[in-house]
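User: I'm writing a short report section on ligand binding and want a predicted complex to refer to. Could you take this sequence and iron/sulfur cluster and write out the structure as tokens? A short remark afterwards would be nice.
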Amino acid sequence: MLGLKFDKTKCSDCKPVSCLVKCQYMDLDRDRARIEWQKIVNGEDSFVLEACTTCYACEEYCPLGNHPFYLIVERQEEKGILPSPRPIITMWINQCEPVGRFMVGMVQEKALSFCFLPAFNLLVGGKLFEDIAWSSIFGQEFFCNAVYLHYARMSVIKERLPRIIENIEKQGIKELVCLHDECYGTFTSLAPAYGIEVPFKPVHYYEYLYDKLKEYKDVIKQLNVKVAYQRNCSVRLAPDTDHFVDDIFGLIGVDRVEREYDRENALCCAEVIRMAKGYELADDLQKRNIDDMVKAGADYCVFNCPACWDSLAEKVARRGIKPIHMIEICKLAIGEKPALEV
Amino acid sequence: MSDIYEALVEIVGKDYVSNQKEERYFYGRDPGLMKPHEPDYVVMPRTTEEIQEIVRLANKEKTPVVPKGAGLSLTGLVIPQKGGIVLDMKRMERILELNEKARYVIVEGGTTHGVLKSYLQKHYPSLRHSMPDSPPIATVVANAVIHGQGRLTQQRGFNSDMVSGLEVVLPTGEICRIGSCSVSPYWFSKGPPLPDLTGLFLGWFGTTGIITKLGLKLYPCKKIRDVMLFLTDRAELVPDIMLKLGHTEMMEDIVVSTQPIPLRFKGNFFILVFMTGDSDEEIEFKRKMAWDTLWEYFDSRDGGFVSITPDMKTPMMAMPSKDTTRFADVRKGGGFEYSGPIAPVEKYPDFVKKLEELASNYNLSYASAARVIDGGHCMMFSFSYTFNRADPDEMDRAKKALDEAAEFSLDQGGVIWKPNIDEQKMMMARMDPNTLRLMGKIKELLDPNGIMNPGNWEAK
Ligand SMILES: Cc1cc2nc3c(=O)[nH]c(=O)nc-3n(C[C@H](O)[C@H](O)[C@H](O)COP(=O)(O)OP(=O)(O)OC[C@H]3O[C@@H](n4cnc5c(N)ncnc54)[C@H](O)[C@@H]3O)c2cc1C
Ligand code: SF4
Ligand code: SF4
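Assistant: Sure. The structure tokens for the complex follow:
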């Protein structure tokens, strides 16, 4: 069985215990955080395991890359803790089960991963993808499975991920542009944390877009708009990609508004939290997040993840802010029309 | 050419009568499992008067008459068991009157649910009717005749409870008005304060007369509709979940489905909770009520609401639901039938167990959708099995499974909905003998020559 590369000693030497101190859902001072964290490390019961909303953020908060969230997920599973109701977990596990149905385009060595998100069929198009759109993979066979981090099912990830990676490799793919950054996080953080080899180069689509936009530098029209960025949960697995947001915005003349809930302090879309903890917390998070966007004077809300789009786009639009996916704001800048609408 | 054929041509014109092989083949069967039996003639009348004449002719010739809507009731109710004339009501499809203030509409005997829905959407967007999930060609009258259920059944009862008056051609040819319209120009009540005579026609499968007009109650069509999806993996919790949701008196419709494929459905009961409102606040409030009322299951982790994406929502919200029709052809070859007992909601877990047991014993694809009726007084539970019509063995297995499901439902205290002729016999065998005798007397009184849809409800 694959084991998590987790270094206990890093934690015993850790002064800030940022993983829990910075947690937005628990109010823990350093001493309490240390005590609770040690319990988790030692495999003892801790209220944290129940209280965790599975927001992924502690993966980013840990300055030493020690994978606190993956350990939490392991412990939740060991102890039979159900972060969401059991039937919801069952549904998720069933619906993404690889069933031997390969949905692929004309795959080349460089390919796009649509993950298991049909929205990319709409988003991928136009000049930014003109020489790659048809080289794509989609569906359960290529689904990164990181979502089970929300459901205390590391065992499912460990069982399926090697198969998924093998499926991708078998397509002859050498470079995989991950359109869903959860896939990118899986291949660059989750897989290495379990010693799973990734025999192709994962590329975050932000990097891809940035490079493409540079090719179109001459046609780019500065958008001169204020944008609130909806930073999603899986960014926490690969926070080093965040600079691309600023790089892209710099190229297309977009002002990423300063607001309370961005960057490390971002709030997720809250739909998983709704299923896990109920509507009150989820409604509150969404309200605070959108109020913050409004307060910051954003014209647009830029989404990274199609799932965030599904949960927030309409709500954002009702508050007078235009929702737009990152791919589409890049399209706008080169004079193309967005395809995804509320 | 026979005398009857000529006489029918005389009544409706030659374009609307056939005794040709092709039509007789087509009108001799339905998509279900009952044995085909061909009619001698197919007629498509346009007016009540034409129907009157056809009925008089049939009495004279002692030939059966079988009214037919879309033929989608699936249990052979429109198969002319003893030949005769099939009366295809398709041409009588007008919407005759709509009273906006008294909220009812009068439709003809063959008007379809699809036509009524689009008419209301176009001309009276603030009014709606209770749309069943059958394909939109299903007729309003036939759906009421078989006591169908639709989107408003959870709140308002069977679709037949929403009838507000009838015009009927009796088996002896007289035209008769039933309800307030028998004494008033208004069609606002099917019975009260008069004796409710609709019971002589609704539920009788066309054996006591042909309904040529039907008044149907309309209800407010709120500006917003929404749906929530609650999952549980414990069948034994479903009855209480249904009742708790019903208790809120806020849900438009509650439908529980279970099926093993696609994989997403496996191992869970999918409870669709529909709601309507005139403002976001109203919807939000109802959504919270649904959550709060089921909170204990969420707390125990036995159930929970799943966040649904807009692309999942669109098919769920469709009226009629296309998913049911899609499932109906999952085995290809167009074979689909379900036994749909009406039973107390507490029977849900036993019925599910039987549904799965029969599917496994007979190696069949299965699905079930159960709809809560009238806040929870009862439910319709479907034992649905699909089959390929080109596979006689699979058809045979499906028939056996459905027969067993029917016996089982009766043993459990259920009553079979839209029963085929065999199931009618099963029920009559268990019926209070005096009730059965009363049914027999009514039938004899109304249809002395026994010409109307013979083979059905033969309460002798
Ligand atoms: C995929 C699918 C989903 C379905 N979902 C639903 C659902 O959600 N709710 C529901 O209620 N049903 C449902 N059904 C069952 C059925 O299709 C409907 O109830 C439908 O409304 C029946 O109407 P019809 O016009 O097809 O009736 P038919 O089968 O044509 O007729 C039914 C009975 O009415 C009699 N009849 C017809 N016209 C007259 C008349 N003018 N006067 C007197 N008697 C008459 C016929 O002789 C027959 O006995 C479904 C069926 C399918 C295939
Ligand atoms: S997981 Fe990271 S932040 Fe938390 S105690 Fe260990 S080293 Fe420190
Ligand atoms: S995943 Fe989020 S909620 Fe859970 S402990 Fe980490 S930071 Fe806190």
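A remark for your report: Residues 169 and 175 of chain B are 5 Å apart (CA to CA). The two ends of chain B are 36 Å apart (CA to CA).
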